Amino acid sequence: MNWGRVAATFSWVKARSTTDPRTDPITRQIAAVDTDPTTRPPWTFLTNHGHVLVCLGQNPEVRLAEIARLVGIGERAAHRIVHELIGAGYVTRTKIGRRNRYELRWDRPLRHPLESAHTVVEVFEPLTRT
User: Fold this and answer.
1) Which ranges constitute the DSSP H helices of the chain?
2) Rounded to an integer, what distance in angstroms lies between the CA atom of residue 126 and that of residue 72?
3) If pLDDT is split at 50, 70 and 90, which confidence band does 129 have?
4) What global pTM score does this model have?
5) How far is CA 114 from the centre of its chain?
6) What are the distances in angstroms from CA 47 to CA 12, 21, 87, 111?
7) How far apart are CA 75 and CA 105, in angstroms?
8) Which of 35, 39, 60, 97 has the fewest CB atoms within 10 Å distance of its CB?
């Protein structure tokens, strides 16, 4: 092994880590990738059900068409997801004239066994603050 080359590489990495992140071209490139929607990966950390919960938590009087637009799904899918959430007891719906008002049941446990010890409020309340 060429220890001189290893030392030179280590000192280069160390020098790079002390650069100002605002002027470092690599840091700027990573930041640009993170904000460019064309280079984002096609997956997200939340399911469409999670995104719908966020929409309902942020605006309890949101229309299904707006949920569909925000989540990036069709209106039928938004309607199906809202009804599944209502059926599972995570959301309640109150009819007010011709509009609906949705309320999240914050005390409900998450469904997957890995998260079942946690409630909806622990995950979604920080995401619904506006």
Assistant:
1) 3-17, 25-35, 48-58, 64-71, 75-87, 120-128
2) 21
3) confident
4) 0.69
5) 18
6) 41, 33, 18, 13
7) 23
8) 97
